[in-house]
Amino acid sequence: MSRLRIVQVVPSLVVGGAERFATWLAEAQQRAGHEVHVVTVKDGGPLADRLPDDLLRATWPMRKRSRYDVTVLARLVTTLRRLEPDVVHTHLFTALSWGAVSARLAGVPVVVHTQHAVHDDEVPWLPHVRRGLAPLLDAIVGCSDAVVADIAARRYAPGVPAVAIDNGLPLAGRPTAPLDGDPLRVVTAGRMVPIKGQRFLVDAVAALRDRGIDARLTILGDGPERAALDAQVAELGLGDRVHLPGSVDDVADRLAGADLFVLPSLSEAMPMALLEAAAAGLPLLVTTGGGGPTLLRAGAGGEAVAPGDAGALADAIARVARLSVTERRALGEASRRTVLDRFDIDATAAAYEALYRRHLRT
Prior knowledge:
Blueprint: E1 5-10, H1 17-31, E2 35-40, H2 53-56, E3 59-61, H3 71-83, E4 87-91, H4 92-105, E5 110-115, H5 126-133, E6 139-142, H6 145-154, E7 162-164, E8 184-189, H7 198-210, E9 215-220, H8 226-235, E10 242-246, H9 251-256, E11 260-263, H10 272-279, E12 284-287, H11 292-297, E13 302-305, H12 310-321, H13 325-342, H14 345-361
Parallel strand pairs: 1-2, 1-4, 2-3, 4-5, 5-6, 6-7, 8-9, 8-11, 9-10, 11-12, 12-13
């Protein structure tokens, strides 16, 4: 087949789930023989240090200086006209709003957007803007069935084909967890914002302590709720049981050092951290507020509880603490096998290529 010229557009190269997915997808598309570029609406970011040289040389920061810096539109249009892509693929709202408009002004044949979340309308006007941008798209992709259902329910993109394509991740060389911790080592990862529900997980650890169950929690990530979580840990006297190391580069190794991954989000799509935890061979505890149960239905080992319920989280963690190492490993192996079978980044890249080509032919 003919080689495609693809531009992946992200807001920046901060170490977030959507940004990591976009760069992993770009790497997989390069391996498949396509010419791939990454455009950041703002500056780059620490994720740039993790990119292979070929992709780093094809990364173009547009350096948007503020929310109202409309001069970025001219820079984007100029860059896209120079690159002459077949496809512009945007991720997250900032990339959609600036990338889709500039792609159409530059005459790009196909524009695709991936919706990575079911909760990103944090201000009242965002849904209206999103609907206004929808006619610029050839397709909108949800990273799980839950996201596609949310797109339809909120009428984000009326008249635009909406399809589900699983997020994927590179799987080679990832360490796996021995699952032999005593006390139980619990881990979660994600941006520290209210929707992620980390406060309920901290409350669950306190409830477990009060029941005489020793569980140690590590919360990976950072964000505006960091100070509130630090205060909560101190107030509950959990300094010896809850560790907040912030954003770290060795996520895979940290996951492999745990016995259970918990996703306590109030609303969530299919976060990369959950897939990484499954790839590490961890049992999974998720909430029913989004795409987490999709992974369990696909075969991963674990259970789902209602969001915002610290007692339910504590009960589920206690059940895992009572399991033998053999029983934990059976759950973890089911998680790992599910990711290997369904969520490899090369399979995801092939699905996106098929979508691109389908719309290039129309």
